[in-house]
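TEACHING EXERCISE
Course module: macromolecular assemblies
Task: Read the component lines below, then compare them to the predicted structure of the full complex.
Student: A.B.
Group: 4
Components provided:
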Amino acid sequence: MDPTAGNVPGSAVPGPDHEEPGLETLQFREEIQRLMTVPPDNASSFTALLELPPTQAMELLHLSPESEPNPAPAAVSGKPPLLEPCAHPFNSSLTFPSNAALIERAAKFSIFGGGEQSPETGAVPSNPGVNLEKVKSEPAESDSNPNSSQETKNNQRSSAKRKEREKKVKVSMKKSKIEAKEDADKIPYVHVRARRGQATDSHSLAERARREKINARMKLLQELVPGCNKISGTALVLDEIINHVQSLQRQVEFLSMRLATVDPRIDSNLDHLLATESLSLMQSNFSNMTPPIMWPELPINGNRQQYQQQWHFDALHQPGWGREEDNHIFITPEASLISCNSSANSASLHTGHVKTEL
Amino acid sequence: MRTSTTTTSSGITLSTKSCRIKFARRFLRSLAEIKKQKRSSASSSEEEICKRSKRIKMAAYSSMARAVGPRMNWSRALLFKLRNRVSYPRLVKKKKRVTVRSNKVPRSKSSVHIDRGNKLRKLVPGGKSMDYICLLEETAHYITCLNTQVKVMQAIADNLSK
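Instructor-supplied answer key:
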């Protein structure tokens, strides 16, 4: 029986089928090499950040242990590898090598500045959920210690520079304040602006303006009310104003009572008073006008000269109509319209007096 | 001859001479009308004198308010009050309530100022509807007008009595 003729169910067929796993592994390695030599599209941004050619960047990463015996990336790039590859498995966390040039380049970008650790000592895990304890237990590399000391020195220098800048700013602020004070001394004080230590709120400014208005009105009232300039204090000034207004109103009441109790025989002269008053107002001689209130008694056979002298006497003794306490203008018979020296005027006065008597 | 002018803070200049002239003219006219009414009623009892004095006082205030014109609040309020009193005479007088205040209660400065302001509001006509600053301004104007009123009435009374 030929072994080739019959198919034994448990037997394996030798031949090219046995070589398929080897070919698959070779193909898989070739694909890995292609991936390593030609980086994917999403890796281009990372290589651009590091400013390195893609092959060298992939060398630095050393993603798989299978790429160790394969010298293809180094041959393609033409440069020897910078550092020895890390012996971590693929699923473990990866650490960047401590190269000074790369660290300086990486420090420029904000990708590495997010964590609390420094970029040279910080680990970048591929799977954050796997082997976190291993990452914690890994000791820091010895090469990173001098770099960290340099960074602390740089930080100290930068902090010193910041302090110097702050001091300069403070000095400039002080100078500006001194200049502002000098300007304020030169320029007169504006009431709207708040002084130092006072509130600059709009409500307080409005309240201050209101208080200034009240003070101005109070000064005006103090000038009007006699004997109020000596008093200090708004409450006392208000009391004086109230008393003054009340006294004036009482004076008006008293004068109205006095005018009501005037002798009835004098009331007939009010019409004449009104007429003379209107005449004086037309001539705008209100303050100089003395209307005849009490007509002098004339003797029937009297002389005109005697009447004139008697009228002058009465005019001298009668109080002037335009007399004022402020102006102190007292009317003399020469200034009055009624006193006159001509006989014609005296005759007209005599006839007028007769008419009024009739 | 100098004329005294008072300038209030709001810019209203009160010429006391012109105000005095206007007031004197109006007051003398109203006084003549009152005297005519007096002639008709020959009886001169105390009641008649009181009525006449009230009329004279009202005439003085109304003539003062008309002389000033409607530019000031107190004059407007006074004219309005007098018109209402003429059209609707009050028959029943209101009784004033006297409130006794104990001095034991401590009073602050603000309450003192409020009390003074309320007193002044009662004295100045139309003061209840004013704020404090406007009240002080109106009070100043009202005092000057009262001064001129008193002087004119004094002069008329002196001239009539002698």
